[in-house]
Structure formats: C-alpha cells, structure tokens
C-alpha cells in the first residue's frame, strides 16, 4: 500500500492516518521514487493500476457500507474486516474499531453501532479484547 500520495503531488494531506493494528512503515523520498518509476515504466503502470484498484475498492465499499439498515451496515463492515484479515496467515482474531469509529464509518450514531454489536457479542460472535490496544475481536 502507498500512503502520502499528496506529498508526491505537492498537496497537503487531507486526513490523519492512525494504525489500529501493528504496521510496518517505510519512508521514501518522493523525488527518488519518481525518478525510479520513470526509469521503469512497467513499475509505474503497476503503481497506477494499484491506485486505480484502491480507489475502485474504496468507492465500492463506501457504497456498500452506507446503505441498508444499521444491522446490515454492521454486518457488511464485519465481513469486510474478516476479508481483510484473511490474507494474514495465523490470525485467530479480527480487530474491530471502537463503536464511535464504527458509527462514523457507517453513518450511524455511536449508540446505534453499540446496539447492533452487543447482540452479536452475546451470541458469541465477537468477544472483548484489550480495548485500548485492539478493540473487540471476532473469531476468524
């Protein structure tokens, strides 16, 4: 994944980025990346395809996560998080955002997100983890 595209384009960052799970970050100078890509056109095309796919995925998920009932939105988010974590071998749980963040992502009030998650937890579909570090966990 690539973060900080705005810097490459000489623009200010529009959003903050907070990693909710462990992440590995490498810092590259935009000038060096651009020079390298210009010398290797296939890498440049792969990067453009990656950006296009990421934008398409983002638009598709926004459309999916912002329609339907509150329960449908919560379940769609859970499916999305499970799909994202499936690529990581050996994962036994899936991180869930705080209720406040889930509400913001889904266009719901924090209380509504909480009312939708609570029955799932009572049914054993999610269990509390270390709230400060990991949020709630879904059995993978």
From TrEMBL:
<dbReference type="InterPro" id="IPR012318">
    <property type="entry name" value="HTH_CRP"/>
</dbReference>
<protein>
    <submittedName>
        <fullName>Crp-like helix-turn-helix protein</fullName>
    </submittedName>
</protein>
<dbReference type="GO" id="GO:0006355">
    <property type="term" value="P:regulation of DNA-templated transcription"/>
</dbReference>
<dbReference type="InterPro" id="IPR014710">
    <property type="entry name" value="RmlC-like_jellyroll"/>
</dbReference>
<dbReference type="Pfam" id="PF13545">
    <property type="entry name" value="HTH_Crp_2"/>
</dbReference>
<dbReference type="InterPro" id="IPR036390">
    <property type="entry name" value="WH_DNA-bd_sf"/>
</dbReference>
<dbReference type="GO" id="GO:0003677">
    <property type="term" value="F:DNA binding"/>
</dbReference>
<feature type="domain" description="HTH crp-type">
    <location>
        <begin position="72"/>
        <end position="127"/>
    </location>
</feature>
């Amino acid at each position: 994944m690539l973060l900080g595209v705005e810097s490459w384009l000489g623009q200010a960052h529009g959003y903050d980025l907070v990693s909710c799970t462990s992440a590995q970050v490498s810092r590259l100078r935009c000038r060096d990346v651009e020079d390298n890509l210009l010398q290797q056109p296939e890498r440049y095309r792969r990067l453009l395809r990656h950006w296009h796919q990421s934008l398409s995925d983002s638009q598709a998920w926004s459309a999916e996560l912002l329609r339907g009932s509150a329960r449908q939105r919560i379940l769609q988010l859970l499916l999305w998080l499970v799909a994202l974590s499936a690529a990581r071998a050996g994962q036994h749980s899936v991180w869930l955002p705080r209720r406040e963040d889930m509400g913001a992502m889904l266009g719901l009030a924090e209380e509504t997100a909480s009312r939708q998650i609570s029955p799932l937890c009572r049914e054993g579909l999610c269990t509390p983890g270390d709230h400060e570090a990991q949020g709630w966990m879904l059995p993978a």
